[in-house]
Every structure is written in C-alpha cells, then in structure tokens.
Amino acid sequence: MQPHAISVEHESAPPGWREVPVRRPDGSRGYREEPLPPDAFLDPQEGDHLIQGTEHDFCVIDLAARLRHHFRNDPTRAVYSDVKIKWGMPGLKEPAPDVAVIPDIRDRDRPRQAFHVPTEGTRPSLVIEVVSPYQDGDETDKVEIYRRAGIAEYLIVKTFEPVGVVNYSVQGYRLVDAGYRPMLPDARGRLLSRATGLEFATEPGHRGVVIVEAATGEPLLGAAALEQRWRQEAEERKQAEDHLQQAKERAERYAKRLRELGIDPEGND
Fold it and tell me: Is 16-220 in CATH node 3.90.1570?
C-alpha cells in the first residue's frame, strides 16, 4: 500500500469572520469584521471566529476532557485543544488542532498562546480533528500538513445527521516511512493508537467516540460521567470535612465540660 498524501484547494470560505485592526478617521484604533479566507481552518489567526456547530463543540470538549483525565498523573504528557501549532517549517501552514496529545513536554501547565515545536523540543504524537460540514480540508489538506510535520498518528472524527439523528465515524492515519497509511480497524472496529495505548471507535446510538485503554479493556468515562464523578467526589469530601468539624466541636464541648467539673481533659494531675 502506498503512503497516503493528498492536497487540494478549497473553493469556498468557511463560515465565520476575522477581526482586522484598522485606524479610524479620528486616528483611534479599532477592528472591523471581514469574511474568513478559504484557508482559515488550515492556518487560523488571532481574532478568527470559526462557526463550528453544537455537535462539533460537544465532541471536542468530550474528547479533550477524557484524554486529560486519562493522562492527569503523567506530567510529561499534555492534551491541548484549539492551540495553534508552530512547526518552524517555512511554508507549512499551522493549524490549531481540535485535540493534540503531546508527549515529553516540560512544564505542561504553563500558559501558552501557541505551541512552538522548535522551542519545546517535542511535537504532538496524536492529533484528532472533528469534521464539520464546512471542513473538507480536515480530510485532504490537513492530512498532508500533519504528514509533513511528522505527526505519528492523525484521527478524523466525522459527524453526520442523515435522518436527524447524529452518527459518528472515525478514521485514522499512521506515519510509516515518512508517508501516511490508513489505520486498519480490528475485528471490533477499533483503531489502535500506538502513541497513546488507546483504542478509538464509534458505536451505533452512542454519542461521541468510544475510547478504550488497550492494556486493560477499560473504557474512558465521557465528559458528562466525569463531571458527575467530580461532583460526587466533591460532595464526599465536603461530607468528610463536615463530619471532621462536627467531631472536633464535640471534643471541644466535652473538654469544656470536664474543665467546668474541675477535671483536666488532658489527664494531668
């Protein structure tokens, strides 16, 4: 099988607008809104406003939340969403992936306006893009961008609504000998990400992407389930703190009563 590499030009601009700085007649500075250029999804700039849709938003947030939770105890692995990647490669467009998993990172939680590959000394090992109806470039141009940038694995999640019910599909590419080759699903329809040790798939009637830890077979909880767990854990911590405070107050009342009776609560003569 030959390595896969495709590049095509967009014929229409994506929906959205860009804020462009201008100088007003009175000399003050301001901004005006202009339609986005055709390559906005491939090379977003500060001030761009891309219209994605609710399902795209749900899927990106859900993927990022689960992956961050999965790697929460590994300070050398970051999961970023909508962060522009600066390759340091002249002429290569610089997208802001929906989700990027980055290994061997230093100071993971330091705020970043963009991720500069040459400065950081590492690059994403897995990039995930969620395709909207206006983003055919995710399946064409970005394949070539991420191949040239040396991204080991690239997953594309598609959402579509044939009869008003949202369905999902996922496909992937793996870098082999400087070329992208399609990732083949196993008998269960799962794509194995070697870069993360996770399996990705879709299931009929399931909203979003199924993610399973390959080594254990355990699924990663969805964003809603994680939020529910966090709320439950927070409530349990509050209850434990309340019980501790109540026990402390009871002990203080008991010690006070002993002192009133002329008894040292410490047991000293």
Answer: yes
**What is the DSSP annotation of 7-42?**
----SSPPSEEEEEEEE-TTS-EEEEEEEPPTTTTT
Instruction: Give the angle 216-174-176 at the CA atoms, nearest 5°.
Output: 125
Buried b (16+ CB within 10 A) or exposed e, 119-146: ebeebbbbbbbbbbebbbbbebbbbbbb
Query: pLDDT per residue over 73-114, tens digit each?
Result: 999 999 999 999 999 999 999 999 999 999 999 999 999 999
Mean pLDDT for the stretch of residues 214-222: 88
- From CA 131, how far away is CA 73, in angstroms rounded? 30
Rg (CA), the chain: 26
How is the chain split into domains, by residue range? 16-220, 222-269
Which residues is 49 bridged to in the sheet?
Answer: 17
Residues in CB range of 89: below 8 A, 6 or more apart: 148, 149
pTM assigned to the model:
0.74
C-alpha 138, offset from chain centre? 16
